[in-house]
Amino acid sequence: MTDYPSSIGTSDERSITLLGRDLAGELMGQIGFGELAFWLVAMRRPSPGELRMFETVLVTLADHGFTPTAIAARLTLASAPESTQGALAAGLLGGGSRFLGVTEDAGAFLTDALAGHETPTTDAAYDDLARTAIETCRARGAFVPGLGHPVHKNGDPRTPVLIRIADESGVHGPHLRLFEALGRVHPAILGRTLPLNGAGVCGAALCDLGFGVDTLRGFALLARTAGLLGHLAEERRRPIGLDIYHDVDGAMDYRPPAT
Q1: CA 198, CA 177: separation in Å to the nearest integer?
Q2: Using an 8 Å Cβ cutoff, are 20 and 182 in contact?
């Protein structure tokens, strides 16, 4: 008989075991959802500082207004009001390179830049590494993930708070320090000043917490699920999805295909 090993959870007639602990007796009412999410992925309990930073990241990424992901979720609910799961899925499927995916992209960029190098010990050394990373990215014709924001053009209000909490929590590590260096050196290279966006800081912070790059978008989606659920609850209370549909339909300019 084939074995299918798992260290997450199991159950029998009398009990449910999660992460080696009795769910009812040891976890319920004793740990929060953020701590559980960290533990499930890292396979270890976070320190208080790590937990504070992790939950700050989740709060940071929960919502950003009427983004395409939120609109997609609302329109799906308007079309299929019986399908909350479909509406949530529609919103989450839009988490990509422009929305939510920046967390993963920035984490990957920073991880790649640090790979193969001794961890810098001074701001000047981080600046040198940041210059090399930006110039390499430019040579490929690519954008530096985490720089710029379509709304917060003069500074993302989330960024200084995330950095402060990383400092206070004792988890201000090399990925975040390199990300800050990108902010310092990029104007001289790119010829313009762009803000360090909150999604990029979140990617750096999650990497400093020890998470692999392949988990980062999952955490962004976990956070945004709460925001989308809020949008769907509001859509049921005060629906606008059909109004969006009618506005778009009324503004459509049909143009027959060229013959």
Answers
A1: 14
A2: no
CA distance 87 to 71: 10
Spell out the domain ranges in the chain.
8-45, 101-213
In 3D space, the residue among 51, 26, 52, 22 whose CA is nearest the CA of residue 39 turns out to be 51
Query: Which two three-digit tokens encode residue 39?
Result: 């533990």
* Per-position DSSP letters for 94-127, written without gaps between them: T-BTTTBHHHHHHHHHHHHHHTTSPPP-SHHHHH
Residue 100's pLDDT is: 79
The CATH number that domain 101-213 falls under is 1.10.230.10
Two tokens, residue 159: 């960024």
Tokens coding 85: 């799961």
Render 227-259 in DSSP notation, one character per residue: HHHHHHHHHHHS--HHHHHHHHHHH----PPP-
Query: pLDDT digits over 31-59, tens only?
Result: 999 999 999 999 999 999 999 999 999 99
0.70 cut: is pTM over it? yes
Nearest to 38 by CA among 21, 66, 22, 57: 57
**Burial letters for 69-100: b for 16+ Cβ neighbours within 10 Å, e otherwise?**
bbbbbbbbbbeeeeebeebbebbbebbeeebb
Query: What 3-state DSSP class applies to 41?
Result: helix
| Interatomic CA distance for residues 6 and 219, integer angstroms | 21
Contact 204, 179 (CB under 8 A): yes
Helix (H, G, I), strand (E, B) or coil at 11: strand
CA atoms within 13 A on the CB side of 86: 9
**Which H or E run contains 17?**
strand 16-18
Task: Collect all residues with Cβ–Cβ distance below 8 Å to 218 and sequence separation of at least 6.
Answer: 41
Helix, strand, coil share (%) of the chain residues, nearest 5: 60, 5, 35
